[in-house]
Amino acid sequence: MSSDIQNSIPPILSSMVQLGPAIFLKDFPQAPQKHDKPLTIVLLFWMNAPLRPAAKYISEYGQLAPDARIIAIFTSASDFFIRNSDGAQRRRITPVLDALLSTAKDGDGGSLYVHAFSNGGCTTLRYLAVAYRDATGKPLPANAMLIDSAPGITSMSRAVKALSYSFPRFFLWRVLLSTAVWGWLLVLATLGWLSRRKHPSYFLREGLNDQSLIRGKVERCYVYSKEDDLIYWKDVEEHAGQARARGWNVSREVFEDSPHVGHMRTDPQRYWKIVARLLKIAMA
Length: 284
Hints:
Blueprint: H1 11-14, E1 17-20, E2 23-26, E3 39-47, H2 51-64, E4 69-75, H3 77-81, H4 86-102, E5 111-117, H5 118-136, E6 144-148, H6 156-164, H7 171-194, H8 200-208, E7 219-225, H9 233-245, E8 249-255, H10 263-266, H11 268-283
Parallel strand pairs: 3-4, 3-5, 5-6, 6-7, 7-8
Antiparallel strand pairs: 1-2, 2-4
């Protein structure tokens, strides 16, 4: 397993098949029959998501949709800032693409539900959608989507803060790592300015609202909080408005006092009720 996510593996992940360094699969309990419409749940976790919190989401989804296949994708800081070329990202998500294509029969491939967390998960989702379109000539056929704490317009200060959650607690290490990250981000920003390349968050936000990448006119729910210190809530609402204008069926769920990707912990009953509604739509 990649050192980026190496730590004590929760039982639910130990029971899953590892398709790649940071990709886990819980396959269908029974092989789908020819005329079945099997449900695949794709969970794209936030950058440097710890395994134990992520496992709670996987376990709950397994209870809500016991007959579904679940694919969990983890994204590391290295995927953002080092292995960030289009080729490297394509290789990273190839096992997920192969799994989705493996059920593409009868011109359908079953139902697809997508849950993307933060800009990290949404960035991975965009790369997956591009790879799917390149392979099939069609947009990613999501039947319902939940976008959790995203998408935001990234600044360097927020990027450093996001990375700092995975820093060691020792003060001196945190200072040294923060300084190194600031320096690296300044280098990337300078190179982007010199090459006149648009900021990655632009491609992320545009990609999620591109009907050539993600199937349009389906249900999409944004879950966010005005207390989120990494993703500005107005950025989320702006993107939701653009999605509605471009044809998606958009709903918004604002949580009170919940931190970044912390809405499930803040109000689990409400959170899983939202998920259950979207799963029902995906399976309809």
